[in-house]
Amino acid sequence: MQGHHFLGLLLSVAVCAGCHTQAPRREAPAPVASNESTQEGTVVGDEKTSMEAAVEGGPSRIESTDMPRTGQGPVLAENAPDSYVVKKGDTLWGVAKVFLRDPWYWPEIWQVNPQIKNPHLIYPGDTLRLVFIDGRPQVVMLQRGDAARVQPRVRSQPLESAITTIPYATVAAFMSKPSVLDRDQIKHAPYLLATRDLHVVMSEGDTLYARGFTNPAELGTHYNVIRVGDALVDPDDHRVLGYDGIFTGSGHVTRQGDPTTLIMTESTRESRAGDKLIPGGVDVPLDFIPSSPRVATNGRIIAVSDGVTVIGQYEVVVVNRGARDGLAPGNVLGVFDRGPVVRDTQKNGFFSLDRIGAPKVALPSERTGTFMVFKTFDNISYGLIMEATNLIRVGDKVQNP
Q1: Burial class (CB in 10 A: 0-12, 13-18, 19+), 238
Q2: Are 103 and 93 in contact (CB under 8 A)?
């Protein structure tokens, strides 16, 4: 019996000793090396591009004002993340929209190394971190050694080309098939003379003859066939700013001489003698950043690619303001409708059946979208509709956002 009591006493001592034994402590993870913040970020968009993540966060708020409000600065998007991993297919506009309600304020929050040749370049795989310095939001790029501490898992990705500000494919397709021609361009451009079989209408596969080359055309050179359309008139002062250029096809030079011989490799509509040849492959630098114009801008949309009547997101449009008016690539403008005109049949406090005699009232313009300039000429600019919250048409106004 005493043996049982002794065994029980030994077991009790062993249990108590186990209760007081401490597990070895783990060292706390080292904080992210940063002078601004040590809080680890929440990475979003692992499987989404920046535009997809921004759309989930809600559209940018659009104000129906003509000019920027005094003292207004960058405002964070409602669901701005602590950090974001840049992905293939992103655009700088989309990345800015992830963090900001108004993406054109990006230069005010983007903290970069001024010693870098082009500090605005961002590559897929880079991790951008949202921090606060003196209470103001700033976006910084983590060093690749620090990025692994913020990301939920280590990711290995080769360095690719930098992301562009706007979708390159959309702009390149438009610029290689210009829709606006100026007087000098028309005057000096070579033109189609005839086909080998003397067909009136030229189409894909036809052998074409052209004249008017200032210098001998090199073999293999690509040309777009452009028909000169209607004059584009400035609705404000009635100046002719250019002419509508209608893309009908393309081809390349197969033999030099006068006339020069080409083979037509693409045809979208009938080409005819007199149509102009415009060199293809126009280069458009896309390393600009979104920004507000430095001057007050009041212009109008005067043309749109493909001749559509209702303009939507990522449509290329032409406005009647250019470099002489202070516009530069990257400038962002708000799009405003013209404000419909209605009859006031309630005047004098009673309803009038005489609608014809009722006074006309112009309703205020309302913000319908956002427009970014990507190429300027003296009097006109090409741009892309970045956002469209309502119908946009030729003739609508573009003004400071």
Answers
A1: exposed
A2: yes
Q: Which helix (H) or strand (E) holds 362?
A: strand 360-362
Among the residue ranges 172-186, 195-209, 224-238, the one predicted with the least confidence is 172-186
Cα torsion 199, 223, 187, 203 to 10°: value is: 20
Q: Looking at the predicted structure, is the pLDDT value of residue 132 above 80?
A: yes
Question: Rounded CA gap, 279 and 281, in Å?
Answer: 7
State the DSSP string of 73-136: ---B-TT--SEEE--TT-BHHHHHHHHBSSGGGHHHHB---TTSSSTT---TT-EEEEEEETTE
For tokens 């741009």, name the residue: 383
Give yes or no for a contact between 99 and 84, defined as CB atoms under 8 angstroms apart: yes
CA distances from 48 to 94, 98, 142, 386 (A): 11, 11, 20, 19
Burial of residue 29, with CB atoms counted within 10 A of its CB: 0-12 exposed, 13-18 middle, 19 or more buried: exposed
Percentage of residues in the chain having pLDDT higher than 90: 37
Exposure on the CB side of residue 48, measured as CA atoms within 13 A: 15
Residue 312 CB partners (closer than 8 Å, separation 6+): 385, 388, 392
Confidence at residue 17, expressed as pLDDT on a 0 to 100 scale: 44
- CB contact at 8 A, 242 and 179: no
321 phi and psi angles, rounded to 5 deg: -135, 140
| Alpha-carbon gap, residue 78 to 100, rounded angstroms | 8
What DSSP state is assigned to residue 202? B
Q: Which helix (DSSP H) or strand (DSSP E) does residue 388 occupy? A: strand 381-388
- CA-CA-CA-CA torsion for 84, 85, 86, 90, nearest 10 degrees? -60
Question: Can you give the pTM of this predicted structure?
Answer: 0.68
Looking at residue 180, what is its pLDDT? 80
Give the phi and the psi of residue 366 in degrees, each rounded to 5: -120, 145
Q: Is 96 exposed, middle or buried (0-12, 13-18, 19+ CB in 10 A)?
A: buried
Distance CA 315, CA 317 (A): 6
Share of the chain above pLDDT 70, in %: 69
- Lowest-confidence region among 46-60, 93-107, 158-172, 280-294: 46-60
Ordered DSSP codes for 1-15 = -HHHHHHHHHHHHHH
Length of the chain: 401
